[in-house]
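Session log. Operator J.P. requested a structure for one protein chain; no other inputs attached. Running the standard single-chain path with token output.
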Amino acid sequence: MQSKPGGRPHLSHVDRSGRPRMVDVSAKADSAREATAKGSVYMKAETLALVTSGRAAKGDVLTTAQVAGIMAAKRTHELIPLCHPLPLTHIDVSLEPDDGRNAVDISATVRTTAKTGVEMEALTAVSVAALTVYDMLKAAQRDIRIGDIRLVRKTGGKSGEIALE
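Structure written below.
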């Protein structure tokens, strides 16, 4: 969000009449950009044990969710109406069980060289990976909780590096 003269917030995806619009990035220079997002899926210890032992009824939860996150990052522009399609050059999605918190922690890093950033792609990768974990375990536990999805770092463009964590 940027500020208009007088200090009022300006939303870049809204035109002067308040209608949604895709931001015109045609005048921007291509630059190397990277974004990392994280999130967690919380469950009972017994459910996490199904994940870590490989005994979940639907199969390998972590690998399936990893692939789902990668696929989702590549299709972000089809899911989020005002996102630009981007030529992604790298996607890394990792899932790590945390026995102490009864959680699966998810991290996604996405890279491109383009006119706009990849924050939405990283956030989408984490979100879909988390939903996949939920889907694969819902028969074992209905009250699984997805949370803490956030952008933790971005680089590139005119704002440079922003570390949020």
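Operator note: Residues 119-137 form the longest helix (19 residues).
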